[in-house]
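Protocol check, entry for the methods section draft. Step 1: assemble the input record (protein sequence plus ligand SMILES). Step 2: submit for complex structure prediction. Step 3: store the structure tokens unaltered in the notebook. Ligand used here: pyridoxal-5'-phosphate. Step 1 record:
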Amino acid sequence: MPNLKHNLQAITQSLPPEVTLVAVSKYHPTEAIQEAYDAGQRVFGESHALELKEKHDRLPDDIEWHFIGHLQTNKIKYIIPFVKVIQSIDSIKLLNEVDRQASLHNRVVDCLLQIHVAEEETKFGFSPEECLSVVRSLDWSTMNNIRIRGVMAMASNTDDTGKIAAEFRRVKQIFDTLHTSAFKGNTAFDILSMGMSADYELAIEAGSNMIRVGSKIFGERNYLQK
Ligand SMILES: *Cc1c(COP(=O)(O)O)cnc(C)c1O
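Step 3, stored output:
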């Protein structure tokens, strides 16, 4: 990957200081991740539990790993000993199970609630209404091993920038509502994760403070050769 370091620096240098870059390394080999690491990147995102575990075991210990894909409860065990943030909490069942398994490791795992605003049925997450009611209904005092740090969302896969921007603004609204209601005074609730290679500028305009960028750093993913 001759351009990896250049791609990474071009993005990093263009970001406002409050925006964290998660380098999405799914389907890319550990050599590419090591190269980004050597260029200074420390936060990486993966979307398959076993792939993440294998990469974690082979790469430096001070990498901050974020899980960003759909997580089945029977796969939590692979990542729970070390994962920093699970960005893709899309059910109460998953949240409860993450809390339970994190307690077995004496850890507190940061979590984001995934909100579904895109048109595609295939994307996971709570609808905006569901998200607000779930947050109101849960008994947070019993969950000692997770910490809700904010929300994550993906926009529709479309060229219609007006539509994408509107979806990001909707997520920002939910974030603000939670911030001033259920999580009022909770300084840990501070992450609004939205924006990928194609749309992170729009996401930042809408208020995102964490972007998840893969192909614009590592190039196209090769899904055949994992
Ligand atoms: C793959 C993925 C990304 C990165 O996508 P790119 O288009 O390669 O930047 C970001 N977020 C999630 C949830 C992903 O699954």
